Amino acid sequence: MKTTKLVSSIVSIVIGAAGICYELATHVQQLSGRSCWLVEILMIVAGIIGIVALASKPWTIVATVIYAAAGIFGIIKSFKYSGLLVESIVSLVVAVIFLISIFMQNYGEPDATPAPKQ
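The chain above was modelled as a monomer; its predicted structure follows.
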């Protein structure tokens, strides 16, 4: 599960960065699409949290909430910006992956075996 979370976090960071580059290249003079910026920044932030805290259940929940918020907000705003729909769907898919990992992954339960005596 950790590998899936790592790969999906990296993919979301790459998609978010590509979206920001696209916005900068196409809308240099008017900087429209603030909702696109928000979704892309949320995807990058959630991706960074997902990579840094692979073995932490609370931070996985935080990343899941951020991915879900980005996906829902992006789908709502995708009626105005059609390119935002792809990023929103990716964000929701990654949110589902993280949600599944909350229940499936073993998050470092403390080891009950005693330490060896020296």
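The radius of gyration is 17 Å.
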